[in-house]
Structures are given as C-alpha cells and as structure tokens.
Amino acid sequence: MPDFIARFATAAEIESWDTLVTANPNGGNLLQSEAFAAVKKNYGWNPQFLVFEGPNYTSYNLVLEKSFPALGKLWYLIKGPDVADVSDIPAMLAALKVFVKRARLNVFAAKIEPDIVASEEARAVLEGAGLVKVPDLQPNDHTALLDISPEPNELLRKLHSRGRNAVRRALREEVEVVRMEPTESTMRSMYDLMVGTIAAKATTTARDFEYYRQFWTEFSRRGQGRFYFVYEDGVPSVGAFVINYGAKGTYKDGGSLQKRKQYGDSHLVQWVAINDMKELGAREYDFCGTPPSDRLKDPTHPHHGLGLFKTSFTKTVTDFVGCYDLALSPVRYKLWSKAGERLFRQLYTRRTGKQFY
C-alpha cells in the first residue's frame, strides 16, 4: 500500500486550484471547483483545500468544513478523495488521521464520496478502512455517462435510438436552441422552468433562487457554465445549464414547460450542449442524476422520469459507491450519528430555510 501525506494547499496552489483539480487521476469534479467553494462559503460551510501527496501522484480535494458545539468540526470531502484506484483510499485516510491529529484540527468525522464505481470489491476496501456507509448526498452518485469523444456523426449514430430519433426530428423541424447570456432575466427564466418541472415531476423541492443565482454566476464568470434555451410562442419552454470542467461536461440544471408543441426540443438542447462541451475539450458528458441501475424501470422512484430521458442518450447507468463516514473521534461520532446530525440539520433548516448539505 503506497504512503500518502495529507496537508493543506499552499497559497500558490489555491491560486491554481482548478488547474490542479482537473489534473487529478479522475479529472476532478465540478463540486471540487473554485466556483463551488465560493458558493458554499455563503451557505454555512468553510472551504478547506486539502492535498494528498503520494509516491505516484498528488490529489487535490475540496473539503467543506462545518463546526458544531461540543462535537468539533465535520469535514465533507465532496466527491473526493480523487484517487487512481480504490486501493489508495485506506492510505489516504491514514494520512488524513495523522494530519488531523498532528495539526490539532478538532475534526470528529470526515465524510467522503469518491467517484469510484460501485462493486463488491470496492465496498470491501472501503469497509476494511473503517468507513461506515451513510445515505448518499449528491444526485450523480447514480448517473448516465456518455463518451463524447467520437466525431459528431458517429456520436449521433451511437446514441440510444430514442434520443437519436428525437434529435433528428427536432433538427428536421428546425427547432432552434439559443445560447443565452448569464443575465438576471436568463437566470429567473431558468429557475422558473426548474421549479415548474420539480413541482410536476419530483417529490423534492428546489433550493432558493439566490443559491442558484450564485451558483450559475460563479461558474459562468469563469467561463465554465452555459445556458441553453428553446423558445415556444415567445417564451422559454426548455432550459438547461451545462458546466464544462476539465475533461467532463455536466448537465447540471434543467427544466421545461409541461405542455409543448416542439417534439425533441429537450433532446436537441442536450445535443447542442454536448457538441459545445466536446469543442471545449470534454471527453465525457454527465447527465447528473438517475435512479440506481437496479431501479431504473421502477415508476415509483422520484427520478424515474429523469432517468428515462437521460438514458435515451446512453443506455447504461453508472453507480458510484456514494457516501461513507470516517470516525476520527469515535465517541463524538457516535453522538453525531445517533442524534447530532439530525438535530443540527433540523435547527439549520428552521433558522435559515435552506438545505443543510
């Protein structure tokens, strides 16, 4: 097992954060980005920039930190650590324990969710490292991924027949996809489409507009986010916000009117975005959230409709291992897991009206 050293990033490394993160073994993740750190700083989290140095590679990871009375600090390595192989996780966590103890950081637990494909072997390694499986937090712990490296004509032919036919029909009928500037009006229209779609098709609720406004602004001003709209009768009927980060494009947010006349409009939005991401250097496109692969056809799953749409481009769903907790202080972690997390989440939501994570 290789040895790793854990430390905080230097000021120079933080200045080049996105460049370093996207050079990680798996290319990083938009939720480890400078833009996302800036958003979460305004929503109750203290961003920390953590580095794991090993014999063969260095991994840069965003940590979201929150402090709690009597317990200390919780670390959330969102979509991390980024590793070359699951077998590196135990060594990284050992380094994390040493770092936290030596630096007296008062961290009682670390929550991790590496982008490692789920398997019995991966679960055995994670559980063998003392990790405890906990509920997943991010929508793309189960997701549809599309290889977009082929040239456009070949890529279109490789799409699932449902998606390919919808794109071709929308092109024949001259549906127009508009690339929108990140103005307040664009963001308001995007949010309205999202809220309408969630109300019609999901059991969850949307975050407040201000959260999305900050999120979209941070990524857009760095040249990492784009809005795509389709109009019908002069009003936005389909909207999407897509992020290019490293070698991956991600369909982060979307919404549409429930009654529309233009067939294939939402598919064409994705097709235009996919080709834009490809031109920007992306090799993979993440549709960002489906039901787990074993529940893809379950109509009772809250993401059933989204899963059907997203798998009309790619037939398969990728399941990642999801969220695990590492107890750094067993006594305090027991208090957290028994009642503390539930209590603090309730108090935070009541006080702010916002989501805890």
TrEMBL record:
Transmembrane segments: none annotated. InterPro entries: Acyl_CoA_acyltransferase, BioF2-like_GNAT_dom, FEMABX, PG_Glycine_Bridge_Synth. Keywords: Acyltransferase, Cell shape, Cell wall biogenesis/degradation, Peptidoglycan synthesis, Transferase. It comes from the Bacteria. It holds the Pfam family Acetyltransf_6. The keyword Cell wall biogenesis/degradation applies. Residues 164-289 form the BioF2-like acetyltransferase domain. Belongs to the FemABX family. This is Lipid II:glycine glycyltransferase (Peptidoglycan interpeptide bridge formation enzyme).
